[in-house]
Specification:
It is built from 5 helices and 12 strands. By secondary structure, the chain is of the alpha+beta class. The strands form 2 sheets. A 6-stranded antiparallel sheet has the order 1-12-2-3-10-11, with no helix packed on it. Strands 4, 5, 6, 7, 8 and 9 form a 6-stranded antiparallel sheet that branches. Strand 4 and strand 5 form a beta hairpin.
């Protein structure tokens, strides 16, 4: 038997549900609260240089150097600094930081020791990274870059057996004084470029201002839930009132 729609329930929904939706207004409230939160945020957010590996590739950034100049572009990741530029920086550092003999020469073959003993293979010094010693691992098939933290090593010597002071390396690294063979790669309006990590004073990224959309979405979900609940309630009310008025859905 076909059931006819309750006319009283229909009337109730037509007149009362828009009122219910208007009075609840959760989506508007949520949007308004989110907009207020967004309005209190600055347009730019400052990121510590040490956090740069966590930035998203393709993210717009503004980098301010230690000399107060700045550059804007799309972040492309962390890479090794151009070898010629790093050689210049490293040479200037060793000349003023206790003499070349206190530090490995770029391209010099090193013997590396861990708690398990001397590492097999040939390792050529490439520079310093984030608390690491960078070496090229030489094999018959070519070479690959490896990075060992100072805590992984117990001894580093040259081929003559002269030992380098690892504890000093670690201390200088913690103080940010070791020249790091690291750069931030950017794509700018004139092409790709590198900003040496040691030149970075601060990084600014666009602040995400999506609280209004999140708040509005949550509020809309609540409004829809209220609407569904109200529709069911009005339909039941109309059915009950219909029986009192002599309306029979089975007729």
């Amino acid at each position: 038997m076909k059931t006819r729609q309750n006319p009283i329930g229909v009337v109730a929904r037509v007149f009362f549900l828009p009122m219910w939706m208007f009075l609840s207004g959760c989506s508007l409230i949520g949007f308004g609260i989110g907009a207020a939160i967004d309005g209190g945020k600055p347009d730019k957010e400052t990121v510590l240089p040490e956090s740069s590996p966590g930035l998203a590739v393709g993210q717009p950034v503004r980098i301010t150097r230690v000399d107060s100049t700045s550059v804007e572009g799309m972040y492309e990741g962390v890479t090794n600094l151009d070898s010629v530029k790093y050689a210049e920086r490293y040479g200037g550092f060793t000349a003023t930081a206790g003499g070349e003999s206190a530090f490995p020469k770029l391209g010099e073959t090193l013997d590396l020791y861990t708690v398990s003993g001397k590492l097999g293979g040939e390792y050529r010094f490439r520079g310093f990274g984030f608390g690491t010693l960078q070496v090229a691992v030489i094999t018959d098939d070519g070479n690959s870059l490896a990075q060992l933290t100072f805590s992984q090593l117990v001894r580093v010597t040259d081929r003559q057996g002269d030992e380098f002071d690892l504890s000093r390396f670690a201390r200088l690294s913690d103080e940010g004084r070791l020249p790091r063979n690291v750069a931030l790669a950017l794509t700018t309006g004139i092409g790709g470029m590198q900003v040496p990590f040691d030149d970075v004073a601060r990084i600014e990224v666009n602040n995400s201002k999506n609280a209004k959309w999140i708040g509005g979405g949550i509020g809309l979900a609540l409004d829809i839930a209220y609407l569904v609940a109200a529709s069911i309630a009005f339909d039941r009310w109309g059915r009950d009132e219909g029986w009192l008025l002599g309306w029979n859905p089975g007729r």
